[in-house]
Structure formats: C-alpha cells, structure tokens
Amino acid sequence: MTLTWTGVNLDAPDPAALARFYARLLGWEIRVEEPDWVKLAAPGGEATLSFQEERNYVRPVWPAGPGDPPMMMHLEIRVDDLATACAHAEECGATLADFQPQDDVRVYLDPAGHPFCLWLG
Q1: What PROSITE patterns does its record include (predicted)?
Q2: What is the rounded average pLDDT of the residues 5-24?
Q3: What's the rounded Cα separation, in Å, for the pair 92 and 18?
Q4: What's 42's domain CATH number?
C-alpha cells in the first residue's frame, strides 16, 4: 500500500476568489474550477492547493483570544527575500497581521482571513 500526500483544501466563502489570490501569490495555475471548488497546482509538481465553498464560513482570528474562532492550520511559504515577498503578498491582497512573533517570519492573512507565514530560508 502506498499513501501519498498531495495537497490541502481550504474552506472559503468564495473559493474562486481565494484561488485567484493564491495563484497570483505563488505563481501556480488553476487546474480545475467548479462553482464550489477550485484546485491549484504547483508548476512541475504534484503538490496542490484547493479551495472549497463553505456557506457557513467563519473568518478565523489570529492570534485567537477567548471565544474567537481559531485558525485550524496555516501555510508556510519559504522566501529568499522577505521584504520583496512581503511587498508581493500585499500587492496580491494579503494583510499583514498585527502580531508578529519572529523577526525572520511575517504572518499575513489571506482575503478569507486564513493566516500564512512568509519565512526567510
């Protein structure tokens, strides 16, 4: 038996809009687009990032306080130039999170509120 991890699905109120954000941010292409589900693929690889509609989506809060809807996961994105990557993320529509726990990492929120980290590596 072989098990192969291939990707992650993120819930979103508008999967097509969130997919376009990440396609622009990462330089990935949209491989499948349906009304309630969109799949991106990395160039030349099997890794995918998909977005599915969640009609009852509740935007996570990061960092979450008592009673806040917490993030359930976040994406880690390695960069070779943190300042340039941050400017690119903001041009794509990301918002810099108020709380930044590390000097060599920047936490951003995508348009649906999912946190993701840009880290210098």
Answers
A1: VOC
A2: 96
A3: 11
A4: 3.10.180.10
